[in-house]
Design a protein that fits this description.
27 strands, Zincin-like, 11 helices, five-stranded mixed β-sheet, alpha+beta, single chain, 24% helix, Neutral Protease, domain 2
Length: 549
C-alpha cells in the first residue's frame, strides 16, 4: 500500500475533513499480541460466501472456518466489526444446531462456544452466518472498509480495503497476520449487471432467477486475510497469458471500467514488463498457480493477492511520483513477493513489507534508465522522510501503531545504504534469497511463509559474510537517524558517527577529494582522510549513507 501522505495535493486537501468528520466509531486495529484463545488454533481453510446489496449498502454472508487445534480449546474466537450482526454459528450440522455466541472486547470479538472441548491435534469446522451494513471506508485504502462508489456512467462500483484495520471489517476471521489459511474459496453474489472480481481463479459464475450472479473463486495458495478482496462493477475483463520465468504460463485478467478498457489494454504490456523484472530480480511470480490480476478501484491502490487494486484510468503513464514508470502499479505488484509471499508474523516488522517494495522502485528505475535514475529515486525517498520514529519494534504491536511513512522511505534507504556496505551483488542476493530461500521456488512445502526482522538480518549476514547487528539496530530500532560529524584541519578530514547509542556503528563513508571518491573506513565509528589545503572535498556526494541532514 502507498503511504497516506503521498497522494496528490487535491486528495490531501480532502483528507482532513473526511477523517475528522467521521461520526462512526473507529474500526478495531489489526494485530497486536495474539490472545491465548486465538493462539490455540491454526486456520487451515476459509470458505467465504457474501451477498452484496449495493442499493441498501448491506451484506449477508457466511464463512466456514476449518482449523487445527494446537492447545485445549473451549471457544472458537474470531474477530468481526461490531457493526455486523452474527445471526448464527454452528460447529457441525445445520443452522438449527447453532451454539451460543458472545461478543467481547467492545464487541469486536466473537466467542463461539464449542459443544465439547477440543484437544491438540483435533480439527474443527465452524460455520458463522452474519449480516449488516459494513463500515463505509472514510478514506480508502488508508482508513478502510467498503467503498460504495459510482462509475462515470452511474453504475455501482464497490471495493474493499482494510490493511491496518483488518479483514474483520467485513467478514468473521482470525484477524492477525501470523495465521494464513492454506487455501480459500470465495463466492460473491451481486446484481447481474455487475462483475465480481476476487483473489485466485474464477471457477464458475452462477446466474439466479432473482437477477443476481454468483462469482466463485478459489485461492490455491496461502493468503493473508487483509488481502481478501471484493471488487464489483460493470467491468470489462481483458485476458491474456504471461510466460513466467518458472516456465509456467500464468493467466492474466484485468478488470477495468468499459470507458477505460482501450487505455488499459495499452498499459497491460508495460505492467507485465514489471512482472518480468521482479521475477528476474526476486524469483518467480508467487501466485502463478492462480493468476496475475488487476482490478480498477475507486481508491488509490492495494496489494490484494493476485488482484491488485489500481486506482487510475491507465492514461498518461500512470502514477509515477517522479519516476519514469507507473510506480502505483509497480509498488503494489512488488508486494506479491514482499508482503504476500513473505508476510510478517507480527506488524512490529511491517517495514519488511514496505521497505523492500519501495526500494525495488529504485532498482527498476536503474534497470530502465541507469545509475542516474536510481539515484533520482533514492533522492526522492530521502525527501519524504519525516523522522522521529523507529520503523521496527522489539515487541508485538498493532498495524496502526507502526504505520508511518518512514516505514516506506527509511526502510527503502536502509536497503540503499546496505547496498553501499555489502555491495550491489550481495544486496541483490539478499533480496532474492529472502523471497525464495534456495530450493523453495517450486518445492513443497509452499514457499509462502511468515518472517521476522531477525530472519532478514541473519540471512543478510550469511550472504555478506559480516555482522550487521549494529547496522540494523541503528537504522530500524532507533527513533532518530545517526549523525555524521566532520572536522577539517591541518590537511585531515575527521569523520565521526554520533547518535548511535551503544551500537558499534561503523558504516563507511564515501568522500570525494578533487573529483576522486574514497571509501573512508569508520573503525569504532571514526575515520580520517587526507585533504591537503586547497583541495575540493565533498562528503557522500551521491547520498549513499542514510543519516540526519
Amino acid at each position: 500500500m502507498h503511504p497516506r501522505r503521498l497522494v496528490h495535493a487535491a486528495v490531501l486537501i480532502l483528507l482532513i475533513p473526511v477523517l475528522g468528520g467521521c461520526s462512526e466509531a473507529p474500526a478495531q486495529d489489526s494485530g497486536g499480541a495474539l490472545p491465548p484463545e486465538q493462539a490455540a488454533y491454526d486456520v487451515l481453510y476459509y470458505d467465504l460466501e457474501v451477498s452484496v446489496d449495493p442499493g441498501q449498502k448491506r451484506i449477508d454472508g457466511q464463512v466456514a472456518v476449518h482449523a487445527l487445534v494446537e492447545d485445549r480449546l473451549e471457544h472458537l474466537v474470531l474477530n468481526l466489526d461490531r457493526r455486523l450482526t452474527v445471526s448464527g454459528a454452528w460447529p457441525r450440522g445445520a443452522p438449527s444446531d447453532s451454539h451460543p455466541v458472545e461478543r467481547r472486547e467492545d464487541g469486536n470479538q466473537v466467542w463461539i462456544e464449542l459443544p465439547n472441548a477440543r484437544a491438540p491435534g483435533d480439527t474443527l469446522r465452524v460455520m458463522v452466518a452474519y449480516e449488516g451494513a459494513p463500515r463505509a471506508a472514510p478514506q480508502a485504502p488508508w482508513d478502510g472498509g467498503f467503498s460504495w462508489a459510482r462509475t462515470p456512467s452511474g453504475a455501482p462500483w464497490i471495493a474493499t480495503s482494510g490493511q491496518t484495520e483488518g479483514a474483520d471489517l467485513w467478514w468473521p476471521v482470525k484477524d492477525h497476520p501470523s495465521d494464513e489459511p492454506d487455501s480459500m474459496d470465495i463466492a460473491f453474489t451481486v446484481p447481474d449487471s455487475l462483475v465480481a472480481a476476487s483473489n485466485g481463479r474464477l471457477r464458475a459464475v452462477d446466474r439466479a432467477s432473482d437477477s443476481t450472479r454468483t462469482f466463485r473463486w478459489h485461492v490455491s495458495v496461502p493468503i493473508n486475510a487483509y488481502n481478501v478482496t471484493l471488487n464489483a462493477a460493470p467491468y470489462v475483463r481483458l485476458d491474456t497469458t504471461y510466460g513466467s520465468t518458472s516456465g509456467t504460463p500464468v493467466p492474466v485478467s484485468a478488470y477495468v471500467l468499459p470507458s477505460d478498457s482501450v487505455d488499459a489494454a495499452r498499459a497491460l504490456p508495460d505492467f507485465l514488463e514489471q512482472v518480468h523484472f521482479l521475477e528476474d530480480t526476486l524469483g518467480p511470480y508467487p501466485p502463478r498457480a492462480d493468476k496475475y490480476g488487476i482490478a480498477q478501484a475507486p481508491f488509490l491502490g492495494m496489494e490484494h493477492q493476485s488482484l491488485i487494486a489500481y486506482g487510475h484510468d491507465f492514461t498518461t503513464g500512470g502514477v509515477g511520483y517522479e519516476a519514469p514508470f507507473d510506480v502505483l502499479h509497480f509498488h503494489e505488484l512488488a508486494h506479491e513477493w514482499y508482503g504476500n509471499l513473505v508476510t510478517v508474523h507480527d506488524w512490529k516488522d511491517f517495514w519488511l513489507h514496505e521497505g523492500p517494495a519501495t526500494y525495488l522502485e529504485a532498482l527498476y528505475a536503474e534497470h530502465l534508465r541507469g545509475d542516474k535514475a536510481y539515484h533520482a529515486r533514492t533522492d526522492y525517498f530521502r525527501r519524504q522522510i519525516q523522522g522521529g520514529v523507529a520503523i521496527a519494534r522489539a515487541s508485538p504491536t498493532t498495524a496502526e501503531a507502526i504505520y508511518h511513512r518512514d516505514v516506506y522511505y527509511r526502510g527503502a534507504l536502509t536497503l540503499h545504504t546496505l547496498r553501499h556496505v555489502v555491495g550491489e551483488e550481495a544486496l541483490r542476493a539478499i533480496l532474492r534469497r529472502f523471497a525464495y530461500p534456495e530450493g523453495t521456488a517450486t518445492a513443497e512445502p509452499s514457499p509462502y511463509r511468515h518472517v521476522t526482522t531477525d530472519d532478514f538480518i541473519r540471512g543478510a549476514e550469511e550472504i555478506a559474510g559480516q555482522s550487521l547487528d549494529a547496522f540494523f539496530e541503528v537504522y530500524l530500532y532507533q527513533d532518530s537517524l545517526p549523525r555524521l560529524e566532520t572536522e577539517r584541519s591541518r590537511g585531515t578530514l575527521r569523520l565521526r558517527w554520533t547518535g548511535t547509542g551503544d551500537a558499534a556503528f561503523e558504516v563507511p563513508v564515501p568522500v570525494r577529494v578533487n573529483g576522486e571518491t574514497r571509501r573512508v573506513v569508520m573503525r569504532g565509528g571514526s575515520g580520517t582522510v587526507s585533504v591537503p589545503a586547497g583541495t575540493e572535498v565533498e562528503v557522500d556526494p551521491q547520498g549513499w549513507v542514510l543519516r540526519q541532514r
